[in-house]
Amino acid sequence: LIENKKFDSLLTNNNNITFLNTNNFDLLNNQLSNNLIDFAFITEPNNYQFNDEIKFKKIEDLHLVYVSKNNNLSNLPIVLLANNDKFKKVSEDYIKNMSVSLNNTIMVDDYDNIYPLIKNGYANGVLIKELILKELDNKEVFEIIPSKQSPVIRIGMLYNINNELKIKKYFNI
Question: What is the pLDDT of residue 21?
Answer without folding.
Answer: 57
